[in-house]
Design goal:
Strand 6 and strand 7 form a beta hairpin. The model has no long low-confidence stretch (mean pLDDT 94). 53% of the residues lie in helices and 9% in strands. The chain has one domain: Cytochrome p450 (Orthogonal Bundle). The structure holds protoporphyrin IX containing FE.
Length: 451
């Protein structure tokens, strides 16, 4: 494994010029993931990717990403694309910046400590158990594993957030959230969306969906406040938490933003990670056999308890490797707050650095036989030898995913339950393609025979 040289100058970096007027916009609009990947194959891991009126520096260099995300993170805020996410998420943890973000992060962090996660794991187990039972009805039929995973992770997230809400309200959140996320993705990916959507009625529909979403979430908050009842869920933890300086609690609007942020950040990512991993497993029966041997040894026929998770090391490696090949968040961007310089590369105020997680995970010099699905590369000793930030499915630095442990335990639980009870055969001759929206999802789903 080659380590990055940290002191040699990187500048001058190559420029991907693209179209004479629109620069790299057409390539990015056609297929953003392929565009960034192929440009890297042509120019190397760090290159300039201008679009009209904006310079984007793309990189998959672990050290460069570490510099921006961690070492000099104070000089960077979330990239411009996060402003579009604000339409739905408001000013929650994902989209906020600076001191306000830091205050919120400190407030929310305890909800993801081990003790709270153990409580949430019980609720997760209940939802998962019901889901596996309901899946029995589909045995012998064709399923779309991507759709299945989206539905079950949404249920888990909703239970973890609002454990006491009615089925009807949860469905309303799920449906309106799916619609508004689709809208935001389309705004992000279609350069003409801002002109088209007010005219073709999509903007109006979006506003309607948002008001349903807000109403249900604010109602859940009000109900909890009025009843005075306590429930073991994220809403409760966030409601009870107090700011260090003022000792005050979050107001309803901020609670709404954080709840919707958690739901949005927390289910589609895990769902896509799982769907891609199950798709890889369906092609690797030997790995499935090894996984099943571990499940049998640790849990027998039961679902794992919270304490068992640590022993499910091979399954954890399978998940890590699945997210290496198909990182649910394929890149994170940052905008420079003031002029900066990294190894001779000048980064001016307002320029964007795009950390390309997908590209880093597919580099041959960082991961031998990078295209091969090989969970053994995540054995503890080998992980220790990996260059820092060469593997970063959860991002890095102070803005590392707050839900990473939640996601890992959820994915372990679901993989165990699914492979205890079912076999998955990929339907032949289907097109499986990646679509890089906010998350990396299978464009046409992934069809499987459930056995
Ligand atoms: C496999 C599943 C997941 C993946 C791959 C993932 C990935 C990420 C990444 C890469 C970031 C950093 C974004 C950036 O730096 O711009 C992030 C942030 C975040 N994630 Fe996750 N995530 C997952 C699951 C979850 C879950 C389950 C939750 C909540 C229950 C969650 C909540 C958040 C929040 C709130 C942030 C913003 C943190 C901050 O800026 O302080 N994520 N996630």
């Amino acid at each position: 494994m080659i380590k990055e040289a940290t002191t040699t100058p990187l500048a001058p970096i190559p420029v991907s010029k693209g179209h004479w007027l629109l620069k790299n916009l057409p390539g990015m609009g056609k297929n953003i993931l392929t565009h960034f990947y192929e440009t890297e194959q042509k120019f190397g891991p760090t290159y300039d990717n201008p679009i009209p009126f904006m310079r984007i520096i793309c990189t998959s260099e672990p050290d460069f990403m570490r510099y921006v995300l961690q070492q000099n993170h104070r000089n960077y805020k979330k990239g411009k694309s996060y402003d579009v996410l604000k339409l739905v998420l408001g000013n929650g943890l994902v989209t906020s910046n600076g001191q306000f973000w830091q205050k919120q992060r400190r407030l929310a962090q305890p909800a993801f400590h081990k003790k709270s996660l153990a409580d949430l794991f019980d609720a997760m187990g209940e939802v998962a158990g019901d889901y596996f039972n309901s899946l029995e009805a589909k045995r012998g039929t064709e399923i779309d594993i991507a759709r299945e995973m989206m539905a079950v992770t949404a249920r888990i997230a909703l239970k973890a957030l609002f454990s006491d809400n009615s089925e009807e309200d949860m469905n309303a959140v799920y449906e309106s959230m799916t619609d508004v996320q689709r809208y935001v993705s389309d705004v992000l990916n279609d350069p003409f969306a801002r002109i088209k959507f007010p005219l073709n009625g999509r903007k109006k529909q979006f506003k309607k969906d948002m008001s349903v979403l807000n109403e249900v979430v604010l109602k859940a908050i009000a109900k909890r406040r009025e009843s005075g009842e306590k429930h073991p869920d994220l809403l409760q933890m966030m409601m009870d938490a107090t700011y260090e300086d003022s000792n005050e609690q979050m107001n309803d609007q901020q609670l709404r933003d954080e709840m919707i942020t958690m739901f949005s950040a927390g289910h589609e990512t895990s769902a896509n990670g799982l769907a891609w991993t199950i798709h890889l497993l369906a092609k690797h029966p030997k790995i499935v056999a090894k996984m099943r041997a571990e499940i049998k040894a640790v849990c027998g026929d039961k679902l794992p308890g919270f304490q068992d998770l640590r022993q499910l090391t091979y399954i954890r490696q399978v998940i890590d490797e699945g997210m290496r090949l198909y990182p649910p968040v394929w890149g994170v961007s940052r905008t420079a707050i003031a002029d900066d310089e990294y190894r001779g590369v000048k980064i001016k105020k307002d320029e964007v650095v795009f950390c390309l997680i997908y590209n880093a995970h597919h580099r041959e010099d960082l991961f031998e036989n990078a295209k091969t699905f090989n969970p053994d590369r995540f054995e503890t000793a080998k992980v220790k030898a990996m260059p820092k930030m060469s593997y970063l499915p959860f991002g890095g630095g102070p803005r590392l995913c707050i839900g990473n442990m939640f996601a890992l335990m959820e994915m372990q639980l679901l993989l165990v339950g699914l492979f205890q009870r079912f076999d998955f055969d990929l339907i032949k001759d289907q097109i499986i393609d990646m679509e890089a929206l906010v998350t990396l999802r299978p464009r046409y789903g992934i069809k499987m025979n459930l056995k």
